[in-house]
Amino acid sequence: MSLPPLVEPAAELTVDEIRRYSRHLIIPDVGVEGQKRLKNARVLCVGAGGLGSPALMYLAAAGVGTLGIIDFDTVDESNLQRQIIHGVSDVGRSKAESAAASIREINPLVNVEIHDTALDRDNVREIFSRYDLIVDGTDNFATRYMVNDAAVLLGKPYVWGSIYRFDGQASVFWAEHGPCYRCLYPEPPPPGMVPSCAEGGVLGVLCASIGSIQVNEAIKLLAGIGEPLVGRLMVYDALEMSYRKIKVRKDPNCVLCGENPTVTDLLEDYEDFCGAVSVEAQEAVVDATITALELKEWQDAGKDIFLVDVREPAEYEIVRIPGSTLIPKGEIISGEALAKLPQDKQIVLHCKSGVRSAEALAALKAAGFKDAVHLQGGVLSWVKQIDPSLPAY
Ligand SMILES: [Zn+2]
């Protein structure tokens, strides 16, 4: 399926632009006409992180006239392994500001619009409505569903991508011509089922593999060339070095873009819809949560505790709380590890940030360990409050 160009061509290209974009201009399918469409285009990139970095850099180099960047985060040292739009001197700086500075260096002809704020249900429509196309580089389900819903409600196309370890996916969602994200994934995964990149890791270069597919699709849509990835899901496996395309059909029963939609406005609360932690975990942590300071006091007072680190072995290698025993969450949830746990000691569970340990705590309580507790904020809060010499990751 080929689609008409999203954008009308600009009136003309300047001499500077003709020189700069000459390698585009001599491609017959792009030509002066296609480049004029890119010049007139307004593209918003949601997130200036792993996917947003290569996407923004190539969109800028390609001569997209106006690039919007929305990101409320600041650059962290652990971002530099993959978020190549930021450098060492940007650590601590706003990601949106840092990305804008890099874009100006790559191509000063691009007009950059910075939205240094979190995308939410109150601003998403207004921000999206200013752009022709959205590139979604978000890393969490709540924002992903909100981006999808807003795009469908506004009739906007968007290019979606996701990355995890060695696996990437990409597609173009445009309800007018094909399925939306909810047609493919009607329900968010159960809380705790799909680890984030912060929990599970991501190969840095995977961001470029998927981010460049997103830019490729963006250029095709803006200029109206080729076969856009509408109704098809690209699945990339970096270890196998395989690309597969899976057909995705529009779901006539889709609650958002189907024949009888029941979702006709943005949801009140996307975090709630995606459930940061399960109901069981939310219940389990009530009156069973301690702080890093309390844990330190217990240790210093010689209290007989059994401290269980429920993270994965690779994370345990990076940093650990003194005295902890590694038992990954999966072994607790499956029941496999229950026999390893003492009945006569105070059990304290912890993970990186407190989400996985809450899930594990629910399983322990259900198995009869009524007094077990978990550490609020996990290793990260231990490092922050007790021992800043340890690495946060
Ligand atoms: Zn749909």
Automatic annotation (TrEMBL):
Alphabetized GO MF terms: nucleotidyltransferase activity
Domain Rhodanese, first and last residues per copy: 301-391
InterPro entries: Rhodanese-like_dom, Rhodanese-like_dom_sf, ThiF/MoeB/HesA, ThiF_NAD_FAD-bd, Ubiquitin-activating_enz
SMART domains on file: RHOD
Keyword terms of this UniProt record: Nucleotidyltransferase, Transferase
Keyword Transferase appears in the UniProt entry: yes
NCBIfam families from the UniProt entry: PRK05690.1, PRK07878.1
Designated name of the protein: Adenylyltransferase/sulfurtransferase MoeZ
Species whose genome carries this gene: Micromonospora solifontis
Lineage, highest ranks first: Bacteria, Bacillati, Actinomycetota, Actinomycetes, Micromonosporales
Gene from which this protein is expressed: moeZ
